[in-house]
C-alpha cells in the first residue's frame, strides 16, 4: 500500500512550531477557499456554512480514488488542517467579530488543478445539495512571513502577537498586512474536542524588509 502523505509531518516548518517567533519564506500553495464576513462563533452563520463546504469538497477530492475519474497523479493524503486569512476594514473594529472579513482555506494536494477542482464542486453540489458557487481554487504565494505557535484560547492571541511584533521590530522588518496580504491562522486543534487552554494555533504575519 502506498504511503499516505501527511502535510503536517512533511512540512514541519509550517506546522510544528515553537512558541517563539521565526522568519519563513512561504512558497506558492494551492487551497480550496471561501471568502465571507461575520462572527466565526455564530453557529448558524456564514462561517459555519463555509467550513462545511470546505470539508465536503476536500473529502470528495480525497475519495476520488474510489470513483470513475481518478485524477492524474493522484496520491492519498491526510486532509490538512483548516486555515484562515483574516481582515478588518477598520482596525477600531478589531474586537467586533461581526465585522471580520475572512477567507477560510484548506490546503489542496498538488495533483489538483482547475478541472479536478470543478469536478469536485459539481459532485458536492449534486450529491450533498450544497451551493458551491463561493468555493474558489486559490493559488497564493505568501512570501516572507513571521510565524509563531499560539497555545491557548483564540481570545488570548494578542499575547502571542506581542511576541511577533517585538520580533518584527528587532529584526528590521515591517508588518505588511494589507488587502492582499492578510493575518493568517492555522488551526491544529479542533475546538469542539480540545479544551481552550490546550488549543494550538499557528499565527503567521506577512512582513517586508526595511
TrEMBL record:
Residues 20-208 form the GyrI-like small molecule binding domain. InterPro entries: GyrI-like, GyrI-like_CCH_Lin2189-like, Reg_factor_effector_dom_sf. It comes from the Bacteria. Pfam families: GyrI-like. This is GyrI-like small molecule binding domain-containing protein. It comes from Treponema primitia (strain ATCC BAA-887 / DSM 12427 / ZAS-2).
